[in-house]
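#random but structural
TW: two for the price of one
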Amino acid sequence: MSTRSDPATRIWRLFNVGLLGLGVLLLAGFFGMMALDGQRIPPSTRCSPPPFHLSATTAHPGDTLTVEAPDADCHPHYGSKAQAEVQLRDPKSVTLVSLLVPMTDDGGFRTDLNVPGDLPPGNYSVSATPYGIDTCFDSVHIGGAALSVGAGEPLASCALPQKPLTVVAR
């Protein structure tokens, strides 16, 4: 063991300690990213909610329609308490009926939508979206995680997904 304390020895020791510290930081970063992959950080390929289906595009006041969506193939991981919000809207986008229904972790749901018995004939729309979850990929945050979108990457549409519904008199 050397007892030399000349400047060259001290510099060499500091260099080795710094190199060791840098290696530890790189390994911690590498394994940290592996641990977080797919859990809190949005995936590199966007996972949009699955499209929903309406059992009929024409209904009478008092009818019951089925609104449903299959599970998404990309596994968005909405959580065990996820809900879908289903809304019946008038031509001015005023919400007439709003339902919160259970949704699977992968975005699937199924519910009945009752067309109000006093609804006048006309053109309406039905929308269905994950409730309380930002699914718009040009937002600053998705599910609480910051998102950086690179130039040229496609963005999801932030338009409300809607299906037309025509209400006709009996």
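TW: number two ↓
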Amino acid sequence: MSGPSSWQAVVVRADEAETLSNPAVSVALLADSPDTGGALSTQRVTLTEGADGAVPHTHELSTELFYLLSGSVELLIGDQIRTATQGDTVVVPPGVPHAFGATPGHPGELLIVITPGVERFEYFRHLSRIIRGEVPAETLLEEQDRYDTHFLLSAPWLAARQR
């Protein structure tokens, strides 16, 4: 058996989680890498009907887990589009292109876990500043390595989301 952990248990009450919202998407920041000794980062994402979640990207270092709390989402996994519904789990290994958005005509709510953890809270705050027009979108490109989020184009994803 190993010794004590370098971090303590994390308890985040639903009403105390920092939440970033726009009319289509809400992200509750639950536990970040610094809080978990680098073990993971997790968020709860709520999407309105047909709303886009994340654009196509990869992670070089991290695995990303999506657990569908409710509704229905489309996911890009590699070059395939898959639909997940309540109770489904999708795990995307490092290096695999992925994206997600609510299925047209349906909302979706997901728990997302990234492991090992990378600094995700500041990534979502950065996205929020872009949406509010406080910083240009290009500033996120400069931070791809910091957030282990590397953006790419995906013809299958574009085709699926333009229906």
